[in-house]
């Protein structure tokens, strides 16, 4: 729970999905052998599905700050479609507060 910022409900699901997506993306570097190609393709398909899920949730615009931030990062890292990255970025910027 602490890695999810103590989130519950929809934000918890979204944040956990984003966190796992980020981990899977970073793990792709492990698949160097040709024999690992089928598994690499399955991981890439999972990342793609997760990115679609995250994009849908970002488009709904009902995420808290932590879930919105990690979702925006996951979508950017995985090079999700530009429109989804843009929505996630705009959601995050809408929450930003200027100080000073």
TrEMBL record:
- The Alpha-macroglobulin-like TED domain covers 1-100
User: Which Gene3D superfamilies did the record assign?
Assistant: 1.50.10.20
TM region positions: none
Q: Cross-referenced SUPFAM superfamilies, in alphabetical order?
A: Terpenoid cyclases/Protein prenyltransferases (SSF48239)
The record's listing under InterPro entries reads: A2M/Complement_sys, Alpha-macroglobulin_TED, Terpenoid_cyclase/PrenylTrfase
GO annotations of cellular component type: extracellular space
Could you identify this protein by its name?
Answer: C4B1
Q: Which gene encodes it?
A: C4B
């Amino acid at each position: 729970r602490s890695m999810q910022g103590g989130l519950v409900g929809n934000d918890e699901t979204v944040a956990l999905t984003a966190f796992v997506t980020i981990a899977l993306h970073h793990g792709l570097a492990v698949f160097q052998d040709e024999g690992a190609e089928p598994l690499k393709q399955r991981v890439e398909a999972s990342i793609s599905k997760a990115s679609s899920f995250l994009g849908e949730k970002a488009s709904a615009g009902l995420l808290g700050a932590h879930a919105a931030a990690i979702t925006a990062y996951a979508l950017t890292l995985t090079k999700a479609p530009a429109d989804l990255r843009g929505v996630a970025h705009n959601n995050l910027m809408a929450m930003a507060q200027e100080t000073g």
